[in-house]
Structures are given as C-alpha cells and as structure tokens.
Design goal:
17 strands, single chain, 12 helices, about 400 residues, binds ligand EPS, four-stranded antiparallel sheet, alpha+beta, Chorismate synthase, AroC fold, globular
C-alpha cells in the first residue's frame, strides 16, 4: 500500500511529506520532485506569494545515492516567506505571552466560503489564523512532492499523466482533437495551461477584469492518464473501486467542488447506446488485453477498474474565497457585522489545480499499482507486472 501524510502551515517554517510503500530501487533525484513543484507554482492570476517562493525539496529519509531504499520517504520544502512571518507563526510563546493572547494579524472576520469560521468554532480558537494557515492551498506543495515520487514510479511502467485547463471563469477552451502527444509539454507552455490560444486570450482578459473588481474565478481542468494496464482497482468492494478512490482524492483538493470521469454528468442525459463504448479486437494492444473501445466515454474505467483506455478525469474548482472586495461576515471578536478579511491571495489558481489533480491521481494510481503488482523492490514489481501483461496478451486473439 502506498500512503502519505503532510504537515505544515502556509507561513510556517516548512512543509513536510512522508510517503510510505514505495519499493526499493526506484531511481529518484531532487530534480524529479523540483520539476513538479515548479509546475505547480505557475499560472497567470496568482498573487505575489509565488514570487517569494521557489519550492525545492530536501530528502530527509528513504533515499540513498539517488535511489529509494524501501523505507518511508521524508521530504521537506522550506517556506521562504517564513522570515516575514516568524513573529506571528513562532511555535514558542514570546517573552511574557499568555495563552490565547492575540498576536499581530489576528483574523476575526472570517471569509465566506473559507474554513475560517467553521474551523474556528470546531477547534475553539479565537484567531482564525490557527485554521487558515493549514487550510491554505500552500499545503498542496507537500502533496505534489509526494506525488512526484509516485509519478517517477509510474513512469517506469510507461504511465504518463497530463492535464490542461478546459474552462476558466465562464470561458470554455476547445479540446484539441487529437490531443497533443505530450499534453503537459503543450499545456505548460501556456500561461494558463490551456490548449486553446483564443480562449487563453479571453481568459487572461477576464482575470484582469475580475482582479480590478477585487473578485476571484474558478474553472475546470481535465487530467488524462495514458499507458495504464487493464485491471487496476477492483469491482468487488466499495472502497476498492478505483472511481471511488479517485473521487475522494480529487475532492480533497482545496476548493474542488466536483469531479467527473469520462463524460460524467452528461451520461445521465443520454441513452445506453449513446453512452457505452463498443469493444473490438485490437491484437498487439497488450495493456488493454488485445481489445480497444471504439470510443472512451467511460473515461478509462469500467466496474471500478481501469479498462486500458486513457483515464480521463475532469475537476471543477470554485472561485478562491479571499476577495479583495470582501463579502459580508460577522466579526467573532465583537459579534458585529463586518466585511471579511482581505488577505493577499490569488485571483485564480485553476492552472495549479490541474497539476495538483495530476499529483493526486499519481498517488491513487501508484497505490493501485502496488496493490495489483506488489513487490518490495522495483524489479520485483516489474516482474509481477510483466508476467500479468504476458498472461493477458495470450487471452484474446493472442
Ligand atoms: C493561499 C493564499 C496565497 C496563495 C497560497 C494559497 O498565499 P499568501 O496568503 O501567502 O499570499 O499564494 O498559495 C501558496 C502559497 C502556494 O504555494 O500555492 C490560500 O489562502 O489558500
């Protein structure tokens, strides 16, 4: 089983991830992780914070001489902004500081749509900073670091994960047909990670307009995974279905409000004949069991298992809840009506969300790989994987 956890506050000293279950012998360099961290920092519409940070990983454990050793992998990403927040975020009490004393920049005017108010009530805090620092999407840095290791593992088996922005703030991007061979090479070249230059110009104009109005925007990313073998996940129990595991992982991304697999909600409006993907023999398509689906409306999953067709997941993000022209709220210190706090933030982070969704899929898929193929070393996993594929290849038309 591959699992991970993270720790870290947005303006604390650092973010930490611990990733367990990665087999020994996987080649792994800090550069593999840093490349993904840099991708997550991109995107038109982000705020000044991204000019301060330059995320790079330090391996603290589990990696030796450029290879994993099968032990938990501990990773650290330092927050450069910490130097500006040390007094506010210091773990130690300051000289003479009483418990519950308000530090500078205390937040008592919770933002509608943010974790501020619900967290403050639930955890019995007076300063919503105790909540928002952890609710911040900065935490996704640590996820992307863990996911980069999983991507490295999946790459050993020919699995490639890419994403692009399909919609931003009311503007649809056309989906190219066929999709570019390397989705990320094309998307990363765009400031909004979109594959439609015309839509991109309109999206940039929309972001500028909304920024001037002190407002924010959401959008939709599409993630595509190529090279998956048939049979990851299982139909037998609710918590082994890959759709369910993908849904939970994607919905855990801050501000994500919806996830679709394949044609998703559209399938509900169509007939069976319009929805289901017809099957034909395709000798040589080993990963899919020597068959092909004539269409891929199912998005690469049937019965909670990969079908061998590309996995296609669409992810909807709501607009960021920090507005520079704030919405109405209640000040928890005075009990009076007030305008919500307006902390520095992004206008939109949809392009970054696509990179994070790629990462969450990598984590789920690497776990499903480990479940299906096992192995304490990469070579043991590879032997199991190859034996399965050669068996599958003999089944139909082989
Ligand atoms: C965030 C607010 C902004 C974003 C941040 C998420 O940070 P700050 O409060 O320091 O301006 O830049 O995202 C990141 C720091 C990141 O690395 O993605 C929030 O409130 O969620």
């Amino acid at each position: 089983m591959i699992r991970f956890t993270t720790a870290g506050e947005s303006h604390g000293q650092a973010l930490v991830s611990i990733l367990e279950g990665v087999p020994a012998g996987l080649p792994l360099l800090a550069a593999d992780v840093n490349a993904q961290l840099a991708r997550r920092q991109q995107g038109y519409g982000r705020g000044r914070r991204m000019q301060i940070e330059q995320d790079t990983v330090e391996f603290l454990a589990g990696v030796r001489a450029g290879e994993t050793i099968g032990a938990p992998i501990a990773m650290l990403v330092r927050n450069r902004d910490w130097t500006n927040w040390q007094e506010i975020m210091d773990p130690a009490p300051r000289e003479g500081e009483q418990p519950h004393a308000q530090r500078k920049r205390a937040v008592t005017r919770p933002r509608p749509g943010h974790a501020d108010l619900t967290g403050l009530l639930k955890y019995d805090r007076d300063d919503a900073r105790d909540i928002l620092e952890r609710a911040s999407a900065r935490e996704t840095t640590a996820r992307v670091a863990a996911a980069a290791v999983c991507r490295r593992l999946l790459a050993e088996f020919g699995v490639r994960i890419g994403s692009h922005v399909a919609h931003l703030g009311g503007i649809d991007a056309r989906r190219p047909d066929p999709m570019p061979e390397d989705v990320n090479a094309a998307a990363d070249a765009s400031p909004l990670r979109t594959l439609d230059a015309e839509a991109e110009a309109a999206m940039i104009a929309r972001i500028d307009e909304v920024k001037r109005a002190g407002n924010t925007l959401g959008g939709i990313c599409e993630v595509v995974v190529d090279g998956l073998p048939v049979g990851l996940g299982a139909h037998v129990s609710w918590d082994r279905k890959l759709d369910a595991r993908i849904g939970a992982a994607i919905m855990s991304i801050p501000a994500v409000k919806g996830v679709e697999i394949g044609i998703g909600f559209q399938a509900a409006r169509l007939t069976g004949a319009e929805v289901h993907d017809e099957i034909e023999l395709a000798p040589g398509r080993t990963r899919a069991g020597n068959v092909r689906r004539r269409t891929n409306r199912a998005g690469g999953l049937e019965g909670g298992m990969t079908s061998g067709e590309p996995l296609v997941v669409r992810v909807a993000m709501k607009p960021i809840s920090t507005l520079m022209r704030p919405l109405a709220t209640v000040d928890v210190a005075t009990g009076e009506s007030a305008a919500a706090v307006a902390e520095r933030s992004d206008v939109t982070a949809v392009p970054a969300m696509g990179v994070i969704a790629e990462g969450m899929l990598a984590l789920v898929l690497a776990d499903a790989f480990a479940e299906k193929f096992g192995g304490d070393s990469l070579e043991e996993m590879r032997r199991n994987h190859d034996a399965y594929l050669s068996h599958i290849a003999r089944r139909l038309g082989g």
